[in-house]
Amino acid sequence: MDQSAPQKGTVTQRAIEEVKAMIGEGRLEPGQRLPTERDLATRLGISRSSMREAIRALTVMGVLEARHGSGIYVTRLEAGDLLETFGVVADLSRGPRLVELLEVRRVLESTATALAAARITTGQLAEVEKHLAAMNATDDPEEILSHDLAFHRAITLAAGNDTMAAILEGLSSRTFRARVWRGYQEEGAFERTRREHARIHRALLARDPEAARAAAAAHVGEVEEWLRAQLDG
Length: 233
Hints:
Blueprint: H1 8-24, H2 37-44, H3 48-61, E1 64-67, E2 71-74, H4 79-82, H5 84-92, H6 96-119, H7 122-136, H8 141-158, H9 162-171, H10 174-186, H11 190-205, H12 209-232
Antiparallel strand pairs: 1-2
Helix pairs in contact: 1-3, 2-3, 5-9, 6-8, 6-9, 6-11, 6-12, 7-8, 7-11, 8-10, 11-12
């Protein structure tokens, strides 16, 4: 066997990088149809099977999308589309990996909340207040969970950074939060989390970025510490 011959995986990876470079350099634009598999394979000097694998991988990543009867297209390349698989990681993670994800969420959510305090509009603040009031008006875990998600989503959107919002959406999936809420419910921690949400809201109302950062960090930090205790117990 010729030891110098490139492995198929290496060739496919090179094809992936080439297509990504074409997009990054503007030779392929978001929404544009991809050249045919045959044309790309010829252009890159690789087999059609390797090109097919590269296209399949880029489709799974969310970089490309197949439109039935029309061909393969570059996606809109929006952060939410490209980070969908990130949410799957959060949903399926267990044990210490969950704590790691919460550490990342604490850093990002505290930053997003600080940005929101500086940028939030009157309408966006009203949306936050609506979900805070709804959380305070019920003891139903499903309703609290739903409004908790919406409360934090409204804040991250108010931060004005779509990429950060997309990452936090992945870190804060409903499945992930439901697992935490179930444990919280058993310990009667609803009142504590309501107080933490109220503190975040007060900081937003005061347009105080540093108070907002501290309130959000403390809120996620409480969940993080609770989860660590579950793992150590």
